[in-house]
Amino acid sequence: MNTPPSRGLDWKEIHVDEEEEDDENWAMPASTLPGQAGHFTSPLSVPSSHQIISGNKDLQLDNSRVSSMDLNTNKAGMEGLDKEKINKIIMEASKGSRFYDNQKKREKQTTERINKMMEKLAQLTESEKQAALTQVDEMVRDLELSRDLSRIIVHLDMDMFYAAVEMRDDPELQEKPMAVGGMGMLSTSNYKARRFGVRAAMPGFIGKKLCPELVLVPPHFDKYRAVSKQVREILAEYDPNFCPMSLDEAYFDLTEYLERRRRMSAEERTYLYCSAEDHGQVEDEKKSTSDKAANNVSIQERTSDEDGYGSSGDYQHQSSSGVDRSLFTSVSKKQGEVTSGKVLSVPAEIQVKSPRRHGNTNNASSLEDSRSEAEWDEQPEQDVEDEDNTCGTKRQDGRFETFGVTCEEVVREIRFRIEQKTKLTASAGIAPNCMLAKICSDKNKPNGQYRIQPSREDVMDFIRDLSIRKISGIGKVTERMLSALGIQTCTDLYQQRALSYLLFSQTSSSHFLHISLGLGSTHVERDGERKSMSTERTFKEISIPSELYSKCMELCEALAEDLKKEQIQGKTVTVKLKTVNFEVKSRASSLKVPVRSSQEIFAIARDLIRTEIRACHPQPLRLRLMGVRLSSFQDASKLSRSRQGTILDMFAKKQSNNPQPVTTPTPDCTEPTMGLLEESTSNNSFSGSVGTPGEVSDVSRIQVLVPNTKVSAPDTEILTSDTEDGVGVSFDNKERVEKKDVVSGSKKAPEARDSTQSAVGVGVSVNRVDRSVSSDTELSSEQTFESAITAANVRTSMTISNPHHSQSHLEPRLPFCEDDFVSGRENEHSSIADREEHTKQLYHPELLSKSEIFNQENNQRVDKLLKMNSHAKSDEYGSECTSSVEAEAQRMLTCPICRQERAYSTLEGLNQHIDACLNKSAIKEMLHRDKSRSFSSSNNQLTKSGPKKLHSRKRSNSGSGSSSSKKKRSKSTPCRTLYDFFQKKDNH
DNA sequence: TACATACAC
DNA sequence: TATGGTGTATGTA
Question: What is the model's pTM?
Fold first, then answer.
């Protein structure tokens, strides 16, 4: 390691004069590196593992240094820094923190991993190594044969993107070291800040320690998205199938375009250079563009945008309208949307002056420089008429640039146009494959480009001394692992190919082999379909279960919103938990039927969290982050079909004299409301006469909506599958034990379920459901009721693969108006004590006792529920009723929760409203009550973070609203409301 | 499938 | 005072 002379920590740029050659040699002292002498001659020679690793460990212990926290200088603008000094500052700022401790722990894990690998290595025999080498070399031959140098792949990367946008929009920032982000985390930094060691992924407070003058600018993602869109519009002209990797970088393939390029006239390749004085105009235009374009540009949306381009088909047309119109249009240009530009008709012989070239020209690619300068000629100043009248003014300083037909020229043109359009610079790499192009784009950053010529020799020359850390996909852990094998460069990687083959997985070693041969993907592929969607948040410590559940609910709501936007539903819910010690855990549960509503997701997520809370017990589960992810999406075709599965659709079908049963939805048809979900629960659940209040409300709703009496084939299928799944029949292994602990012995009280919080209300066993369904005959009143529910819920029919979840995910019900619904004004649970009990059930399910779970009140409630059901039946909510319900839905309806009367054009609308009422206001209310009563004296953190968090996300109007809704609920008689609801329907 | 890890941006 | 959020891939059991 190059130890720079020690200096005082004055706040100057922190760098050393000489280049540090020895990067981060984690695993061993340089002197022991195998590669130094013999390693290149013998591909099979490796260092002794124990020597290496233990030495490294000692080193770490002695210095109590956590190398993984060291500055990663593998970034443009961070060359030659005094890493020693910077790392010292970082370490001092971090030492003793939980983060630091965790990093230490993780580093130790990596070391152990390396040790294992080295043990494995030590056991390899020479013949094994030789055999591996033979095998690998065969692969090498194949790979060589398939080497494709014909593609011209470009990786374009905006320079310090977020920071650049901020600097552009606030020139005062240009002279200062600045970073985008906050004290918590930085997204990116400008080059001035990088000289101090301040970089992306560094917490702001450390950035401040490294550079006290550092200016922190909060991110403005809308702006970045808008700029990104502008850039993509340009890229799409060159490759409609370009592949954006993030807001600031993209791959594209110029191969086809270059064919056409050769046939393009000089005019078509000529662009006006817009000088600094023009910026105001551009700025104005940009602003309106930003406004317009500041919409979401998620992956999906991006795709559709780009598809728009791609499908426009006529590339030539697009291309011939090639210049950035933004440069020539007047400020008042109507829609402000910057479209692709217009080529100026400029005589080819008019030569143009080089565009302003800021940025680092010193390190610009020699190739680029030599070629481009030759074509960048001075243009005599003259007036230029904008023939297409897109400019509006004559330009006194009009200068033009005609770009050539080589790929370097095209890329330069693209960067030029990007700069003209956005006033931001980009760097690019050109190579025969993506892997190389990506590395190249970093080579001459900022504002430069670099090309690897498409010959094997050039590729291998480039690769030869390349640090493996430069390769995308090789991070610090892999770097350490490989370093332990004496591998730092791509040449090393090739030399040790036999070892990597023996010591790493097939996937990894194959990847390494590709890298070491300079091979990579030769086609630019769009991202495939999204595989998951998640929301996660970091917060001040939360350990109180009620707050954890509340946070979980927030996340589920946020996630459900996002899912809705993209019309996605999935079958696996994963909860991510990060403890205050930065330990990350994930817990997942898969269903057979996709879900997407916040209630459904919450039901599962909550259960997973509860399990964790219990696992920690009696210690609290102390979290600093929680995340909820949904994955295992069903494919798009199914998705579109699933939309049929709404209640309305069922009604519609019914009404149109469709002879098919009321409930035809397929298992993947889900647009469940809370109530529906709960219901399906009861079908799947162990049985349950437990029925906490929540259900009842759901049931009521369902009765209102789908009071059907018959169940037929489609339901049968679903329910059967549910039963086949064994849901509710038996637990296995420790899950069972756990449940038994909580529940009161499933034999005795099979209805009792561990989570009672909102436990299933309908008293039916799985078997009975099964029977009733399969018989498809007239059902008893209880069965009928259940069947009706089933009918309403087929699309939700939560078939649970994991019995553990069968309980919970089926009970997303919130406790609030449960009682109200059950017993109305004369609510059996109207006492404060009862209410608190319900709160407890929701937010402290882990605290419930058997007796709490299974009690007389619940039975009474269930009885009532069943009565209601039979009442409904006797009121002839038969098949006819469907249409009457539907008719009702067209009219004014009163929400049974908030008593608001509104016209609902769809039942779904009403359903959603009810969900909103139930969830959004009441959960807060309950939480508030819960907290104020149970925790007010015990935890000050609660007052700090709890309420704030509750209101932190997408629930802006919930605060006062919830309290008002609470009053309404308690004053009004929900039960009567519900009956009113029925009544009204009846009367009609 | 569940979970942990690694990685990128 | 204080170390992110989102998504993908992979290895292992």
Answer: 0.60
